[in-house]
Amino acid sequence: MIRYLYIFLAFISLGLAPLTASPEQLGQIEQIGQSDQFNAQHTAFSVAIDQIDANVVFMRHALAPGYGDPDHFDIDQCATQRNLNATGRQQAQDIGLYIKSQGVRFDAILSSQWCRCVDTAIALDLGEWQRFAGLNSFFQDHVDRKETLALLSDRLETIADDELILMVTHQVVISAVTRYSTPSGGLVLYNSRTGKAKPLSIP
Q1: N or C: which end of the chain has fewer CB within 10 A?
Q2: Do 57 and 174 form a contact (C-beta atoms < 8 A)?
Q3: Cross-strand pairs, 57
Q4: Residue 166 burial (CB < 10 Å; 0-12/13-18/19+)?
Q5: What is residue 35's predicted lDDT score, i.e. its pLDDT?
Q6: pLDDT of residue 202
Q7: Predicted local distance difference test score (pLDDT) of residue 197
Q8: Cβ atoms 106, 165 nearer than 8 A
Q9: Which segments in the chain show pLDDT lower than 50?
């Protein structure tokens, strides 16, 4: 009731609440305030997308402690790769929840074939996803940089103006395309037609 009293007094001072407002009316006033706050949060991601007319969201895989991959790296064997830890899996889940809270929907979700990217895509829980070699890491020359970026460039050219694609990948790929460095789980919005890019901070 103290919470309702504060809300009631605030609305009286603004001339927005009748002096005879009931607890039910006060509850409605509180819900309106909460709704406005939600709507402001709900549009934050979309506003950032609209600022550059982004049709791609690049995401670096979630936290995977270490540096590079082991010498015995095998793309088909997760045990030979640097992988997400518990913190990384939770980070990916939290990012997925944040994106859902923003009301953003992706027309397609693509992931590097590396296990830490695949596991990130799974933990995001944003819908169906596909492996895509054009997002693979060429950091240690496990794949050819030129061939990988050519695949990615071809895919970017096929994205329609009204589409929005999420690409889960690696630091080297994101920086090669957008010129931005990203932390683990970092997002960079990108317009494949203009080349404009915008890092997105997650609360």
Answers
A1: C
A2: no
A3: 166, 189
A4: buried
A5: 37
A6: 85
A7: 97
A8: yes
A9: 1-42
